[in-house]
Known about the structure:
The complex is a heterotrimer of chains A (173), B (105) and C (358).
Chain A: H1 4-26, H2 30-50, H3 54-78, H4 94-114, H5 130-138, H6 142-163
Chain B: H1 2-5, H2 9-29, H3 33-58, H4 62-92
Chain C: H1 7-13, H2 22-54, H3 70-80, H4 91-107, E1 113-115, E2 118-119, H5 126-132, H6 134-147, H7 151-182, H8 187-193, H9 204-207, H10 212-225, H11 250-276, H12 291-294, H13 298-320, H14 328-356
Antiparallel strand pairs in C: 1-2
Helix pairs in contact in C: 1-2, 2-11, 2-13, 3-11, 4-6, 4-11, 6-7, 7-10, 7-14, 10-11, 10-14, 11-13
Amino acid sequence: MSNPTYTAIFYLFAAITVFSAAFVVFSRNVIYSAFSLLFTFFGIAALYVFLSADFIAVTQVVVYVGGILVLLLFGVMFTNNIMDTDLKTDVLHAIPGTFLFLGILAALLFTFYTTNGWMPSDTQLQGSVVERIGFETMSRYVLPFEMASILLLAALIGAAFLARYDNGGTNEH
Amino acid sequence: MEQLTTIGINHYLTISAILFALGLYAVMTRKNAIVVLMGVELILNAANINFLAFSHYNGGMEGVMFSLFVIVLAAAEAAVALAIIINIYKIFKSVDVSSIDSMKE
Amino acid sequence: MGNSLNAWSDALAGFQPAGLPLGLLIIAAIPLVFIALYALTYGVYGERKISAFMQDRLGPMEVGKWGILQTLADILKLLQKEDIVPTSADKFLFVIGPGVLFVGSFLAFAVLPFSPAFIGANLNVGLFFAIGIVALEVVGILAAGWGSNNKWSLYGAVRSVAQIVSYEIPAAIALLCGAMMAGTLDMQQINILQSGTYGFAHFFLFQSPIAWLPFLIYFIASLAEVNRAPFDIPEAESELVAGYFTEYSGMKFAVIFLAEYGSMFMVSAIISIVFLGGWNSPLPNIGPIALNDMTTGPVWGAFWIISKGFFFIFVQMWLRWTLPRLRVDQLMYVCWKVLTPFAFVSFVLTAIWEIYVP
């Protein structure tokens, strides 16, 4: 894969992902962090397309952008004074955090680049994975699939119970 | 130069390492609980990139299926975590994780 | 079928003068030009005239004969209007809001088959992409509403987002019924499966008696997704001034307007592709008179899909002047207690039909 257009597009999306993720983490404004996360999720979805996982890429957009990001934005709006557009947050343990950041990054990169065992197989994933996902879900992964659906149902009921208004119920006041 | 122009597995692993470290930094240092949650999402996404990269270069479906389940779990996690954060806000009038230290009202 | 599948878009994609992918830019520009043209003619002038005739009025009559030049006057007004950014608004979010909204609306057109010979990107997950990319619009609406720093805008945005996110569920399940009948998510493949010499009898809507239920559910849910009446509470002008775009003027307003009309056409095109055959001709071959063969081809395909889309937009306009607006709690009631259970029922029934009825 050394087509120059392909490479350029890959680097473009990689840059979008990394820089917007850095903005999420280093921005002092919570609402900017949340909107920057949009670009991170989108860039990651584009990287999934490069990895020939088109179905996962669209799922990423649907679940992360349409679900989690909207939840986070609502969370930001609920937990702040609603008409206050500059929402600043402080940074705690900045120096140990920076050391940990650099240490983990260096350790991971060192491991990735010095492991010579990444032997790409001759049969890489090609084309679309939609049909294969369907077959795998209904054959080999049917139990995890059902477990995931039960877990989602439990999480849905639990979240709705936790976040609802209390009308003098059993919850604490 | 050959390393830079030919997209291989190391490129994806580098991006995922950066995202993981950034997410960890957010979890470590930010005071707002919602930004901490964003950091957790970044970590999960970094793991997903690794799964898909290994799956692509290995030719198997295991990583693809696992990343699908990771996305499902991330959705459940975000919903429950936000419900907890909103409850914390109702009680403490703040989502600052460093100032929430009493176990009882 | 005359020409082979995707002949035009493949030819355009191969057009690379001096190594630059100019053909791809042209492919991307075609839906853009289409949205602009249709929003300005049918969207502005058509909607005003249609709503006027439904209320027994005349509508715009001053500019040109029958007011035909009204659109031109509107464009001139929008172009020369001052582009105001309120001083207390969040400048960054205020500016990117309409942009993200338009990108979300426009990206869906990438997988829309305009004709047997033209599709932007023939994705294997086309239908899923088309309903999933709405998520970007949601974030754009929130950015616009929050960035305006105006409580009407914020209420409008929150209402709109709650509505879109909720109605995505019945809409997606209803489309899943169509995808189950087709056995694929590829937009062109869904169209091909509905073609045949009997015209409309091959459309999924007429292939199974159950298909009417997801068709109606998706139509109602799509009204809510594009904030049209009777689900237009996000921009209810008697309660909120104009919803999330209250503060916008000039070109930014025009961009939001184009995005709204773009997604109106998109949901109409999706419903006509999944249930009404997309670019297939509805006319059957009657004995020696081969009406179906005569009206099939790349150009006819574009004609059929656009006219089917316009028909559904006409129904949307018709409903706007027929039904009163719902209250917020009624809106959520309709979504969660009526549409979603019926969508599940139609899902199960379609699955049984597809397995046991040949």
